[in-house]
Amino acid sequence: MYPETIELLIDGVWCQGSDGKSETLINPATEEVLATVPHATEADLDRALAASLKGFKLWKTMTAMQRWAIMDKAADLIEQRKDTIARTLTMENGKALAEATGEVQFAADATRWYAEEGKRAYGRIVPARLPGVRQMVFKEPVGPVVAFAAWNFPASNVIRKISGALGAGCSIILKPAEETPGTAVAIARCFQDAGLPAGVLNIVFGEPARVSSYLIASPIPKKVSLTGSTAVGKLLQKQAADTLKRCTMELGGHAPVIVYEDADLDKTLDTVVAFKFRNAGQVCTSPTRFYVHEAVYDRFIDGFAARAEKLRIGDGLDSAVQMGPMIAPRRLDAMDGFVSDATAKGATVITGGKRVGNKGYFYAPTLLKDVPDT
Question: How far apart are the C-alpha atoms of 213 and 248, rounded to whole Å?
Fold first, then answer.
């Protein structure tokens, strides 16, 4: 059974959207309905904005030590509830349970780190140009934050938003991905149970473009943070410019791997295969292409294919599984598109290149060999 009830968190109160609109949450490994995800209306978003301003005024006046105490307790609660939160994460995201458990542990560790950093947000003394003048720089929280987190790391993406803001003395409105809402809700409950004042952390869901544009247009938030695609990052940064909001963007990557002639090939293959198929390849730093020295090219291809074919694919709740499903059917279509495009341009499928099974969004670990330049 799915462990979490999905609700909005506004001004310290868990609630449904005021118009009853929602969407279903699907387990990508089984295609079973896990829960419903409520959508926030504009009225709900207005309440969240007002709550974040009220929460900021309270949170920023607390000492760094007081904020640290609450965040440290929240980290303890995340750690204590790690197994349950990891199960929630695996059921909604699909990744292997061991990987999910490690990610939730990271959430606890990161919360402690940000709490400690909050105690060290030092100012400085600037040498003056005139005698008898002392120039002091003080660091102050920038204000309420609006943050948007991607689905591929439901715990670590979320915790960087929450704990980064709280450690700096800011309140936050977080919109997690609707594909993976339960992990964020479970983490938010830990902060609430640790004594976080109402309004300091607010959680909303809804149609992404509508929610983001509405929140960013408000004069209340002073900072925007996104983990997501480059296209969305460009859009949000343009919207934030209208009200001169500060932005922090963690966007998509396109990572190459270069394999030299003198590389330890077995060690290299063990490393790159693990990183390539981590979270079914749905990672911004996942290797996307390999440039291999001709002296080791054939051995690299053979070794990579052999390792990929041995990966155990299935429901992440199975302890033997090494790779889970894609997040949604649209990603299966995208994979088919990548393979079709590559083969049309001369590439050869060495292994994989097709969907797996008739239930769940599984795609075989895939390796394609390009036609070498001559």
Answer: 16
Q: How far apart are CA 116 and CA 72, in angstroms?
A: 9
Closest CA to 313 of 64, 31, 95, 120: 95
pLDDT score recorded for residue 374 = 47
Strand segments (E) across 133-286: 135-137, 145-148, 172-175, 201-203, 223-227, 246-250, 255-259
Catalytic residue set: 250, 284
4 and 185 Cβ atoms separated by less than 8 Å: yes
Q: Residue 108's CB: how many other CB atoms inside 10 A? A: 25
Inter-residue long-range contacts of 353-357, CB under 8 Å, 24+ positions, other chains counted = 356/313
Place of tokens 């609707």: 178
What CATH architecture applies to the domain 262-369? 3-Layer(aba) Sandwich (3.40)
Phi/psi for 37 (5° steps) reads: -110, 115
Query: CATH 3.40.605.10 occupies which residues in the chain?
Result: 8-123+138-250
| Distances 161 to 110, 151, 172, 236, 277 between C-alpha atoms, Å | 11, 13, 8, 16, 26
DSSP bridge pairs for 351: 367
Residues of the chain with pLDDT under 50: 374
- CA distances in angstroms from 129 to 7, 59, 142, 158, 289, listed in the order given: 56, 36, 28, 45, 54
d(CA 292, CA 138): 51
pLDDT digits (tens, 9 = 90+) for 12-22: 999 999 999 99
Question: What local confidence, expressed as pLDDT, does residue 373 receive?
Answer: 59
Q: Which residues are bridge partners to 35 per DSSP? A: 25
Write out the residue limits of the CATH 3.40.309.10 domain(s) in the chain.
262-369
Q: Please give the mean pLDDT across all residues of the chain.
A: 96
Cα 338 vs. chain centroid, distance in angstroms? 24
Q: For residues 277 and 266, give the distance between their C-alpha atoms in angstroms, rounded to a whole number.
A: 17
Contact between 301 and 350 under an 8 Å Cβ cutoff? The reply is: yes
Architecture category of domain 8-123+138-250 in CATH: 3-Layer(aba) Sandwich (3.40)
To the nearest 5 percent, what fractions of the chain are helix, strand and coil? 45, 20, 40
Q: What pLDDT, on a 0 to 100 scale, did the predictor assign at position 371?
A: 64
